[in-house]
Amino acid sequence: MADVVSPEVRSRMMASIRSRNTKPEMLVRRFLHRLGFRYRLSPRDLPGRPDLALPRHKVAVFVHGCFWHGHHGCRFATVPATRTDFWVAKIAANKVRDHANEEKLRDLGWRVAVVWECALRSNSDHAIGRVVDFITSNQRSIEVPD
C-alpha cells in the first residue's frame, strides 16, 4: 500500500513528533509535582535517560508511547502499512534497548516504573495512582498498561 502523503510531508510529520515533554509525560509530571514529589528530568547519568528520576525514592519512571515502544496487544501499537520491515525492526530494537536499560537501572539499585500511553488515555488518575503507590512501596518494578 502506498503512502497517502508525499515523502516530504511524511518526513516533516515524523520530525515534528517530540521525544520529550509529550502530553502523557507532562500529565504524569504535573500530577506527581502536585502531590509533592520532586524529580529530575531525563538525567544523563542514568541508563536510558528515564523521563523522570526521583532520587529520594530511587525510582526511574518511563512514560512509553505505545507505537514507539511496541506495546504488545495495544490498539495504538500498529505497524504502518508502508516500509513495514523498517518499522518492525525499529520497534523491536527499541524494545530490546528498553529492556536492557531497565535491567541496568535495577542493577544500579533503582526501581523502575513503566507507564504506557494507553493507560493514561483510558484512566489517567488510576494509572498515576498506581505509580504513586509504587513510589511509596518497596516493589522493584511496575508496568502500568491499559
UniProtKB/TrEMBL annotation:
It comes from the Bacteria. Pfam families: Vsr (PF03852). Keywords: DNA damage, DNA repair, Endonuclease, Hydrolase, Nuclease. Transmembrane segments: none annotated. It is an enzyme of class 3 (hydrolase). GO terms for molecular function: endonuclease activity. Its EC number is 3.1.-.-. Belongs to the vsr family. May nick specific sequences that contain T:G mispairs resulting from m5C-deamination. This is Very short patch repair endonuclease. The gene is vsr.
